């Protein structure tokens, strides 16, 4: 598939959200769609809080991109841990200058992580890496936060 703009991908996201049976299917579809259609989104994945893990831990879920050594991340580590702990989106324009960054790939230059909420509590996050510095502007942040919110809504409405 050719690269697309955010607006075009957004339409596909909405369709995917309506047609996915559950949150797992939605997450798998989102990472595939986003990774394929947005060229500067080089690694796209969800980390979800592991139920009952002590200390609290994020576990890698659906993702597209290169393999990562970070399949489990404590909440007190990395940019992912910072986003999950604070409940706020974290945008890093230059990962080399951020001491929180957990190196996964030498190619990664910037990262955005948006929390996924269910009933007001962080349950996971959408993590995106780019091979381009300062790849994530306001429009990207709004898009990534929207995708994370859609997953949260799907989790709330999915039977346990």
What brief labels describe this structure?
160 residues; alpha+beta; 6-stranded antiparallel sheet; globular
Note down, in words, how this protein is organized.
The chain is of the alpha+beta class and 160 residues long. The protein has helices spanning 6-19, 23-37, 78-86, 138-157; strands spanning 43-49, 57-64, 72-74, 90-92, 110-118, 121-130. It has a six-stranded antiparallel beta sheet with strand order 3-2-1-6-5-4, with helices on both faces. Strand 1 (43-49) and strand 2 (57-64) form a beta hairpin. The longest helix has 20 residues, at 138-157. It is globular. The model has no long low-confidence stretch (mean pLDDT 92).
Structural topology:
Elements: H1 6-19, H2 23-37, E1 43-49, E2 57-64, E3 72-74, H3 78-86, E4 90-92, E5 110-118, E6 121-130, H4 138-157
Antiparallel strand pairs: 1-2, 1-6, 2-3, 4-5, 5-6
Helix pairs in contact: 1-2, 1-4, 2-4
Uncertain stretches: none
- Indicate the mean pLDDT: 92
Oligomer: single chain
Would you report the number of β strands?
Answer: 6
Which sequence of SSEs, written as H and E, runs from N to C?
HHEEEHEEEH
The number of helical runs is 4
Q: Can you summarize the main beta sheet?
A: 6 strands, antiparallel
Quickly give the structural class: alpha+beta
Compose a concise summary of this entry:
With 160 residues, the chain is of the alpha+beta class. 36% of the residues lie in helices and 25% in strands.
